Amino acid sequence: SADSSKVYFTTIQALVAGGTDADLLDGYYSDSAGGMHLMDLNLDALTGTDKPQTLQLSPDGTHWLLSTNASLVPGDTNGTLDWYVGDAGGWELIPGGLGTTTQLLTTANMSTIVWASADPALITDTDGTSDIYRWSAADGTQLVTDGTVSGASTIRALSSDGSRVVFSTDEDLGDGDAAV
Q: For residue 57, what are the β-bridge partners?
């Protein structure tokens, strides 16, 4: 948390009574007195093939990033691994998914997510190499790198408001970007 009174984290270990079996992700926080607390993220029904593959909590514990095979919103009908951003009000599907990520950065409130993946999240990504994507609820999923020219791409930083992504790439991004 911003005042350092709580630390939010995820684990497959049952750290308090009521924690899940060992292999299901749960969200916890520890308080300044050293107490452990299980968070109620409404994930209890996600078991078996629907169990969360990835669970990340925002620094203040109010937002969650989750990957699962389960359909958490009516618009998710494919039965395959999808990514969601959630809070106490419910879940929002990230269309196209994130694929197999090699890097993942978020703003503190998870309103913007940036990731690198060789799996195309958009049909315009045809190069088959790692590219960088940016998602926000306002703008949807966007390709940050070219996606049509082969080249390695690495995320270096994300601005706190999510408006800027710093990255390096071997791709030619257009006018004035000569391959060296």
A: 64
Beta bridge partners of 103: 116
Kindly state the DSSP code that residue 122 receives in the 8-state scheme: S
Interval 122-162: pLDDT, tens: 888 888 888 889 999 888 888 887 766 667 788 999 999 99
Rounded Cα–Cα distance for residues 172 and 134 (Å): 19
Phi then psi dihedrals of residue 95, to 5 deg: -60, 140
Report the alpha-carbon angle 19-93-66, nearest 5. Answer: 25
Contact by Cβ (8 Å): 129, 151? yes
Q: Give the 3-state secondary structure of residue 49.
A: helix
Q: What is the pTM of this model?
A: 0.77
pLDDT digits (tens, 9 = 90+) for 56-90: 898 888 999 998 888 899 988 887 888 899 888 88
DSSP secondary structure letter of residue 48:
G
Question: Do 45 and 17 touch, CB atoms closer than 8 A?
Answer: no
